[in-house]
Amino acid sequence: MTTGKSAVTPMMAQYLEIKSRYPNALLFYRMGDFYELFFHDAEEAAVALDIALTKRGKHQGDDIPMCGVPFHAAEGYLLTLIRKGFRVAVCEQLESPTEAKRRGAKSVVKRDVVRLVTPGTLTEESLLEARRHNYLASFANVRGETALAWVDISTGAFHVSVIPEVRLGPELARLMPSELIVAEGDDQTLAETADEFGVALSPLGRAAFDSTGGQKRLCDLFSVGTLEAYGNFSRAEVAAMGAVVEYLEITQKGKLPLLHPPQREAQARVLQIDAATRRNLELTHALSGGRSGSLIGVMDRTVTAAGGRLLERRISSPSRKIEVIQSRLEAVSFSYDNSGFSERVRGMLRKVPDLDRALSRLSIDRGGPRDLAAVRNALAQASDLPGSTDGHDLPELLKSAVQDLMGHDDLVDLLDNALVDEPPLLARDGGFIAPGYDEELDEARKLRDEGRAVIAAMQQEYVDLTGIQSLKVKHNNVLGYFVEVTATHADKMLSEPLSDTFKHRQTTANQVRFTTLPLTEMETRILNAGGQALEIEKRLYSALSLEILNKAAEISQTARALAEIDLATALGELARNENWCKPKVDESRALDIKGGRHPVVEQALKSQSGEPFIANDCHLGDDSDIWLLTGPNMAGKSTFLRQNALIALLAQMGSFVPAQSAHIGIVSQLFSRVGASDDLARGRSTFMVEMVETAAILNQADDHALVILDEIGRGTATYDGLSIAWATLEHLHEANKCRALFATHYHELTKLSEKLGRVDNATVSVKEHNGDVIFLHEVRRGAADRSYGVQVAKLAGLPASVVERARVVLDALEKGEREGGSKRDTLIDDLPLFSAAPPMPAAPPAAESRVEKRLADILPDELTPRQALDLIYELKGLSDED
């Protein structure tokens, strides 16, 4: 943008100066009731927001493009711009036009940017998903050591972890941050990783990643002399956290949000799940996008936003610590066994607003009266909840949570007395302080709302004082309020002692007008009462906000407790309604599941067709670490693989599981290679993607990992694919020594069970009838004899001629395989495989049997029970004769 000053108005000069400080953001420049954008910003915003592009004035001889949005509706426009990848600098008026004119008639209203809006710094309720965190992450590299820090400024959550750079992708897949801060220069090398996970990349000066400066920023933020009380952080961790704080200071213009002390997350404490596995298992997002059809979409029975966010964290980061898992399972088990308790508590939790986000908005002065009410209502419900637990011997997790709900009675009483039941959204609207809370406010409101009654009372006071019944208090635009009497009473008013109170103002033909000091003061107060009432309410709002923020740590603890109780009762209700069982979790290598079911597929069947899900057993551990699963397509192999992985994950997050019983030995890593897709943007074919994901598994899986692999090697030639699958299976058995479910169409691999001691064969049962295949969806020990591919093709609707031709070719190939190489080649040569086969004539309809003829004549509704029984015997006889 050209910044020449020739013929530049003072206002435009101000705009250009402010814009020069934010070249990479759209500048929302406040002009009265609108945010206006100029030059290239206006052109980009008009297209992105689908609003009119106009012009205002000229700059260096050219029209200045301009567009604008109403300030009261700005949130919706901000959301659209953020979702389309823009950053927005919000420039507000820092004084009124009246104040500006006091500095000179042509003075420009002072303006400056008060906030830089970016994807990771949103706090407005309308801009956020209630049940999802909105993380801002920072990745730091200090002398080869790397760390990731992440915050959610809308809830105050603050975490950090040492991770190798190779783990950045999986961590981004787990956290799904909106924005990632990196040091300038690193944005080029990390751009592809950020883009893969839809994360906005924000480069920041390398000085922001200095660990010494970061330590000082963090100590200042938390008002401590050292960070040792929060943990023994490495330089990389301090650098990552310091960069987050620096970025927040830049974007929030010094109004730092209320952040919890940083929590260090150790990688060894959570189940490691790579990005491909999260995608394949559809943990928090279905492959089609959104929560519908995902695991969390099926499981979520929480009734608070904080409970929903906690559920997502647990699904994304299952624990590996037995004591943590057991405490969560005990809480869910208590809820499962005590349905009455659970229902009462959930009824109260439904009335709990989002306490974390209300507290965060208040801390950065972006809240309003409804946030005060949200804190009041949430704490009031929290204070009442312990009464619902009387008479119950709570497990430790719930007992601790209930303790954290108490201690807010004084604050609740204060807010209850101060606030109306349903306050307005904005403090500037007024009317949120309850009557009777503040005498000065009540008086100002009385003057504002009942000015006539106040003047009437003063008139009566003056009548009593003077004894003049005809005395009136009146008002006009010249004199304001005045006391008026007829000319006959003038002498009395002008003589002592009344002359000391009443001062002469005006004499007309028939009346004499006076004023009094109290009347003049009352006039001023009445005229200013509306503004005064609003200023008093704003002052009280600030005082109430300060009272809340002074107890922010205790309130945050209560918010976490409410979320914990919500999740425990939600998982208990889920288990009761869906017939899930409590798993046994220990340090063994077991994966012993009886009657396991896929939670998402089961719910889909219920809602769509009402069909029951066919449950299956799985037994890994002891002398069988790997199941080699064969069977046709559509028989349910992929579902079986996924359901067992999900059951292990659910157990370790502390939930009941969809099975009759489950014994889960701790899983350290969960890997999956299922499905087929290409990655054309990075030049990867389907087979290449498959090999990259398989390589990641073989290079990383340890002996406590659980691996599910589906159709390894199918994307290349038969013998290439078979050899890759063979070698992969051997590597899992001999090198990784992990538990695995390995589905394949290569029946040759079933021979490996005789050579590899911990490999067992399993198959999905089918039944063949009159050339068609019927899927039983039952998994049993043993190997499939063939793939039934042609039958599945027929079910899919391939033309009959194609299906029949495929049968002929398959028979020839299988016969050649049995008879040896040279014979096979002869048979292949006899088949016109590389020439167009003539269309096969339609198969003649089969002759109608005597049973079918007899059935055609029957009207079932007209049969008596006895006639129906006789008919069955008759049809049985005809069938035997045929």
UniProtKB/TrEMBL annotation:
Keyword ATP-binding: yes
Residues annotated for ATP binding in this entry: 631-638
Swiss-Prot/TrEMBL GO biological process terms: mismatch repair
GO MF, one example: mismatched DNA binding
NCBIfam families: mutS1 (TIGR01070), PRK05399.1 (NF003810)
GO CC terms of this entry: cytosol
SUPFAM superfamilies hit by this protein: DNA repair protein MutS, domain I, DNA repair protein MutS, domain II, DNA repair protein MutS, domain III, P-loop containing nucleoside triphosphate hydrolases
InterPro entries: DNA_mismatch_repair_MutS (IPR005748), DNA_mismatch_repair_MutS-lik_N (IPR007695), DNA_mismatch_repair_MutS/MSH (IPR017261), DNA_mismatch_repair_MutS_C (IPR000432), DNA_mismatch_repair_MutS_clamp (IPR007861), DNA_mismatch_repair_MutS_core (IPR007696), DNA_mismatch_repair_MutS_N (IPR016151), DNA_mismatch_repair_MutS_sf (IPR036187)
Protein known as: DNA mismatch repair protein MutS
Key word ATP-binding present: yes
